[in-house]
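Exercise 7.
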Amino acid sequence: MMRFVRKKIIALTSLLMICAASIAYADDEAGLMAPLEPVFSVNFGPFDRASDLVGWILLATSVLSIISILLIVILIFGLKKQNKSAAKQKKDIAELNEKLQSRYDELCRKIEDVKKSSHREIQEPVERDPLVVPHTMNIEIQHIERPKPPTEEELYRPFVTAYNTLIDSNEKAAGFQKKRNQDNFLAQFHVKAFKCENAERRVNSPEIPPQYKDCSQNDKPCFWAFEFVSGKCAVVPNTKPYDMMNHETGGLKESFVSNFMENNTYNHIRVIRPAIFDNQWNLLEQGELQLH
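Solution. The predicted structure, written as tokens, is:
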């Protein structure tokens, strides 16, 4: 663009020099243009001679050239201003890019710091109160020991304790109160009853092993069973008196170790350890009784 402007300026300068020469001719008093007089002395209508016509043409051309020069100057200043504006915009864009890049780098550094901090917290856990949950993104999963399952004794112990309490209370309670206490005990532990079904045969043949079957809770003799886990029952004698017949033929001596003495009858029974049967009434483990 600047090269084009320069060419225009050179052309207009040449034109102005021609105009200056024409004006010089028109006002030639020294006669320097005398050799060309025949050419410019021709008559062209309203003009006295050709030199007048050329003078007017050159004058008009000079005016137009001046106007053109002014327009070109204005154009040059406009282009310079536009170039300055474009340079400023380019500079602003460069500064904005630099700020954005700086901000981006800062964010990247912060992200890296957060990652390093999180990794350090995971690698080096801080001791905390196990009852307080930390309000952080990185929650440590602490190893919590599961409670040990209760032992069999812990499962059947409430049944044995309630049975011994029932025996103790029956010694002081009246008949109606004894019945109520017993019913409450049987309902609380969902007690099942079974007895030795071949007790009569064992009177004459004590070597025959006892065989057990379900029965009414009021049968004599009979056993009370509490199923403390699936398929296993804690077994105690019912509250009837413990006598020689029950001991020898009713299956009590096979089910319990006790301090029983022949020909004695015991009204107070204390269970030290219940006998363990399966739910088909097969003896798994002998119990222990204290008789008074």
